[in-house]
Amino acid sequence: MPCLNLSTNVNLDGVDTSSILSEATSTVASIIGKPEAYVMIVLKGSVPISFGGNEQPAAYGELVSIGGLNPDVNKKLSAAIAAILETKLSVPKSRYFLKFYDTKASIYTREFSSK
Questions:
Q1: Would you tell me the Gene Ontology cellular component terms (predicted)?
Q2: pLDDT, tens digit, 9 for 90 and up, residues 78-103
């Protein structure tokens, strides 16, 4: 399941966050090649962020996916998410950073004991 976690210092009050979430979901799904049903987007606003020594609009993101990431895909994702942030939140492309994590699938088990 790809998960895109976005943080910005932009105040999201009055912003149509649903359109950002929807556009980011479809963008991540189409570029990575995973179904939208498996994509999670987390958007946090009003996060204290300083970029380049000032607090003008900026954003930081982390994208975690089990497979589907490579340098070409990462470049496309970075550009597409930057365009969404610039259009929807007025965050310049030069004030945005996206970190990628391509993880391996793991099976986690948890034991439950009854008393």
A1: extracellular space
A2: 999 999 999 999 999 999 999 999 98
